[in-house]
């Protein structure tokens, strides 16, 4: 079995169908939800790391002091070149831990079903190459990654906020959007954050629309999750080492 550490910062953003996709590809999941579950001090014994989303800020240590430990693990994973995937808050924590900049989005929140598009570097990336040019995702965030960490490769972008997906070194990834949600989870977020929900297109959060977009997400991102497990298991070659020292636009 390919053992993965799953960090779940928020009870409201569970692993969802992503967990099913990972386990059906042969992964064993060790899910930790801080502060209830203690985080490991090192990544020894793990073949990969996934950090999910949450309602807190990436640097909100005063309210959530354990965030510093999450960033430390993400920094360790980057240094070890351990296959890693940060999702929404996870991507922001990864950026903050490795020299990027996370801020409140100047153009307001991104909320609801959306599309992101592949950048040039994605076409030769082991996880992103087989994705379609435009990918269905769920957005639900106020904070954004304003500056990628040094050396990061930009893999996907969107009109409002450019830094939607990136890779550090050979196998450490961050995606600003969600691929792990269910229609019920998104509806609950909308109920909890009505001011954000009001910013979506008319009908975007209706049950039929959310069911449809989640079917499209599964078609695209289930194989992506399978490739991540293969990468963690050593069955899929990591990306070539980037020669760049500045973020790739």
Automatic annotation (TrEMBL):
Enzyme class: hydrolase
Keywords of the record: Glutamine amidotransferase, Hydrolase
CDD domains reported in the protein's UniProt record: GATase1_1
InterPro entries: ChyE-like, Class_I_gatase-like, GATASE
Protein origin, superkingdom: Bacteria
Listed PROSITE patterns: GATASE_TYPE_1
Name the record gives this protein: Type 1 glutamine amidotransferase
């Amino acid at each position: 079995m390919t053992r993965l550490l799953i960090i779940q910062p928020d009870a409201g953003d569970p692993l969802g169908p992503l967990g099913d996709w990972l386990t059906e590809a042969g992964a064993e999941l060790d899910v930790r939800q801080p502060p209830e579950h203690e985080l490991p001090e090192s990544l020894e014994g793990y073949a990969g790391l996934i950090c999910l989303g949450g309602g807190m800020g990436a640097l909100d240590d005063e309210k959530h002091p354990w965030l510093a430990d999450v960033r430390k693990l993400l920094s360790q994973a980057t240094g070890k070149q351990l296959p890693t995937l940060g999702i929404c808050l996870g991507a922001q924590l990864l950026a903050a831990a490795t020299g990027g900049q996370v801020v409140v989005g100047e153009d307001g929140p991104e909320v609801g079903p959306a599309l992101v598009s592949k950048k040039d570097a994605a076409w030769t990336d082991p996880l992103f190459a087989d994705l379609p040019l435009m990918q269905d995702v769920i957005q639900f965030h106020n904070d954004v990654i304003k500056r990628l960490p040094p050396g990061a490769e930009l893999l996907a972008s969107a009109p409002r906020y450019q830094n939607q997906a990136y890779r550090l070194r050979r196998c450490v990834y961050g995606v600003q959007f969600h691929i792990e949600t269910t229609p019920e989870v998104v509806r609950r977020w909308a109920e909890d954050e009505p001011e954000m929900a009001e910013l979506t297109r008319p009908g975007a959060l209706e049950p039929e629309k959310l069911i449809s977009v989640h079917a499209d997400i599964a078609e695209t991102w289930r194989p992506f999750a399978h490739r991540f497990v293969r990468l963690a298991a050593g069955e899929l070659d990591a990306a070539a080492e980037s020669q760049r020292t500045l973020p790739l636009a």
